[in-house]
Here is the input.
Amino acid sequence: MTPVLPRTVRAVDTDQLLDLHQEAATLSFSQRLPVAWLQAHLAAEATHYLFPTVVQRLRHRPEVPLQWRCQLLLTVRTGEQIWGLLDVLPDTFDKLSETLDAASKKDIVSLIGRAETQLKWAERTTADAVHDEMPRQ
Here is the structure.
């Protein structure tokens, strides 16, 4: 029987998010961002959001535990909010504090749906940086 996916949003600070990504890396979960990338780009004092959307069970890898695939709304150092994915253990997700009211959760889910992806943001900012470094004639 598949566990029921929670229909909620959880808020975490940057340190908590780094811990979640480290746990996902340790467990070899497929949806996660590199911790070093996050440390370089996340706003240190920001709040980030997780919204579980898929029960992830890897039948071809039975040693890997069941996960919640969460959509993320991340705040980067530029102040922009970007979209990503993170696989989280259900018990780990359940231990995150429930701090948001229903209206805030609805707003966050809406923002997630409109946010630029982490990949597109990284490509854009890298291209912008290269353009800014090019000599002017």
Q: What stands out?
A: The helical segments are 14-26, 35-41, 90-95, 102-114, 118-133. Residues 118-133 form the longest helix (16 residues). Confidence is low (pLDDT under 50) at residues 130-137.
